[in-house]
Amino acid sequence: MSFKDQILEGIPSVLPPAKPYDDTINHAPKRKDILSDEEKKLALKNALRYFEPQHHAELLPEFKSELETYGRIYMYRLRPDYKMYARPLHEYPAKSQQAAAIMLMIQNNLDYAVAQHPHELITYGGNGAVFSNWGQYRLTMKYLAEMTDEQTLTMYSGHPMGLFPSHKEAPRVVVTNGMMIPNYSKPDDWEKFNALGVTQYGQMTAGSYMYIGPQGIVHGTTITVLNAFRKIKKSTKGNLFVTSGLGGMSGAQPKAGSIAGCITVCAEVNPKITQVRLDQGWIDEKITDLDHLVNRVKKAKTEKETVSLAYLGNIVDVWEKFDQENIHIDLGSDQTSLHNPWAGGYYPVDISFEDANEMIANNPELFKEKVQETLRRHADAINKHTAKGTYFFDYGNAFLLEASRAGADVMSDNPTLGKEFKYPSYVQDIMGPMCFDYGFGPFRWVCTSGKPEDLAKTDQIACDVLEDIKKHSPEEIQQQMTDNIQWIKGAQENKLVVGSQARILYADAEGRAKIAKAFNDAIANGEIGAVVLGRDHHDVSGTDSPYRETSNIYDGSRFTADMAIQNVIGDSFRGATWVSIHNGGGVGWGEVINGGFGMVLDGSKEAERRLKSMLFWDVNNGISRRSWARNEEAIFAIKRAMEAEPNLKVTLPNLVDADLLTSL
Q: Which of its termini does the chain have fewer beta carbons within 10 Å around, N or C?
């Protein structure tokens, strides 16, 4: 069968042969055995409902074995034989160009070069899934191939509920992931209901089909590292950044450190992913001995090198060894998947990677105990370095939150509302006041032609637009404009494309709308093919996350999720091609609500109208909320937005004289 025929087939009426387990692929760890005997029967019934009754007897023992062996039913047998990657748009069987673009984005999320655990349909973060099983994938692709611009596909946590009549202005797809009743949003609830096949963890951009490989986090981390060094008034040259994690998102850290110009040491316990990052050129050197690491860092400091070093081992050993050897760390952070601490997101010290994985499946309570012991050691080692002048920040992975839950010494001696921890999150100190409050966030696009020359043209268009805007920008945002112009000029030479021909930069509402219009004009003129616009959910207004995206909200509203919900609803009727809303994100199940969108630009006047309406709302919704929280930079930004758009009228806060409150 051709590729198009396989897409149109959906779930086959004649079962394909069972597939052998491929040991060469980086697989998800075995999940916790959490279901009762009756619940296991229910999980099997739930999986079999995708198949005609004549197949149930054959599939039942196979699915039972998957559930027992891996803790989930992935339906490996249904994994397609064709190569998984983002094909040029015209290669997809589709009645709707918008639907074809969504198919392209789904396949990009599952590309072996992009996905962390491709056979388990997990894109990044250890559990960030596009679908829960291959039956869902096949059925979704079939629906997308069949749908018209008068229909909308509804996605319930990976399950395609079906095509419903709508209209051309409606989103083609509406995605929800993990939308649990609040009292059922604890980590074990995810384990249970995911094993039952009724919900999934979409991370941020995995379950919304908008992940573009590690490029997005490379850019965000580059901006973070540059601004962190500025904050401590140090040059990046010859100075040291220490962190951990080389997975789907965290793997960007050493590359970003090199672009910023510092020495980066990044620890990782997984030998497979460490080798992948070395082969990809995302790290310069792999080191397996601590003494060798110490000597290599000393040499790099002396010679003021820009170099990225991966240590294959536990990060706690690095912090402790550098303390003993008096290696000064300028910047410190962590980007292990601590949103997923009990299922492979963070590994205990003094236990081998293989033994730890076995413990996850067979003795989860002991594993949890060892992780919490490690977190306490980790925090103690960090505290020793910060006492010597290290600047440590939480990089939004729930490190401080989980460390506090483990009883680690990370709480502030003088806590205030929103500043309970000894160390700030990077949003509180860096990205919030410097970027998000001004409306700058991760704007991204994908060239659906698959042509590198189209990406090069869009890079030049974006650079030209930003340079033109910069000429008239106020002083408050000049640094952000400069950083992003520098980034886009160097994007191609840094070879950041993994998977689709995609790019990311940080832009405010004005920049996003003007870049998007310039793309749409270029498409209309036949200079480039259609473009998909999107963003990370980690942005100005898409995400309510009290310990990350909205951690610099100090009016008491950081535990509310009105902004994210308003964002996705507003995007849906202002022109988005698809919208998504998730529970989970990068900080943990039950800890965040985050929303995203995708928008197809086809060169039409309708696309121009939609992009102007939606992008303006998508950014200014968040600036408004941040302004109401009395964030000075956001008040400046929303006043500027109201001057530019007479139809925008936002409630501004009246500030209270601090002296009035001190007398209470």
A: C
Residue 174 bridge partners (DSSP): 154, 579
**For residues 207 and 194, what is the distance between their CA atoms, to the nearest angstrom?**
14
Paired tokens of 362: 């067979």
Residue ranges of the annotated binding site are 125-126, 203, 268, 395, 586
| Residues making up the binding site for NAD(+) | 125-126, 203, 268, 395, 586
Which residues, listed in sequence order, are joined to residue 497 by a DSSP beta bridge?
A: none
Q: State the Cα–Cα distance between residues 315 and 357, nearest whole angstrom.
A: 17
Please provide residue 264's backbone torsions phi and psi, each rounded to the nearest 5 degrees.
-120, 130
Number of Cβ within a 10 Å radius of residue 647 = 6
User: 488 vs 233, 467, 506, CA distance in Å?
Assistant: 25, 11, 10
Q: Which amino acid is at 489?
A: K
Give the orientation angle of helix 187-195 with respect to helix 37-48, to 10 degrees: 50
- CA separation for the pair 346, 251 (Å, rounded): 14
pLDDT band at 314 (very low <50, low <70, confident <90, very high): very high
pTM of the predicted model over 0.85: yes
DSSP string, 531-596: EEEEE-SSSSSSEE-TTTTTTT--SS-TT--HHHHHHHHHHHHHT-SEEEEEE-TTT-TTS-EEEE
* Position 418 confidence tier, pLDDT thresholds 50, 70, 90: confident
* Side chain identity at residue 609, one-letter code: R
Which two structure tokens, joined as six digits, stand for 124? Answer: 């990044």
Q: How many CA atoms lie within 13 A of 327 on its CB side?
A: 31
Structure tokens at 424: 């700030």
pLDDT at 456 over 70: yes
CA distance 315 to 329: 13
Find the helix or strand (DSSP H, E) in which 307 lies: strand 307-312
> Whose structure tokens read 């991760």?
442
In whole angstroms, how large is the CA radius of gyration of the chain? 24
- Residues 6 or more apart whose CB falls under 8 angstroms from that of 302 comprise none
Kindly state the DSSP code that residue 254 receives in the 8-state scheme: H
d(CA 225, CA 81): 41
The backbone region for 437, taken as left when phi is positive above 0, alpha when psi lies in -120 to 50, beta otherwise, is: alpha
More confident residue, 43 or 416: 43
Per DSSP, helices labelled H in 583-664 are 605-628, 632-644, 658-662
Could you give the CA distance from residue 621 to residue 617 in angstroms, rounded to a whole number?
6
* Gap between the Cα atoms of 625 and 437, Å rounded: 9
DSSP code of 18? P
557: tokens are 């509203």
Read off the DSSP letter of residue 168: T
Residue 113 CA to residue 304 CA, distance in Å, equals: 33
Nearest residue to 282 (alpha-carbon basis) of 5, 95, 474, 496: 496
Half-sphere exposure of 220 (CA within 13 A, CB side): 28
Q: Are residues 374 and 320 in contact, defined by beta-carbon separation less than 8 angstroms?
A: no
Question: How big is the CA angle at 204 (ends 201 and 206), to the nearest 5 degrees?
Answer: 70
Sign of CA dihedral 603, 607, 612, 615: negative
pLDDT in tens, 372-401: 999 999 999 999 999 999 999 999 888 999
Q: Return all residues near 105 (Cβ < 8 A) that are at least 6 apart.
A: 86, 209, 210, 446, 500, 532, 598
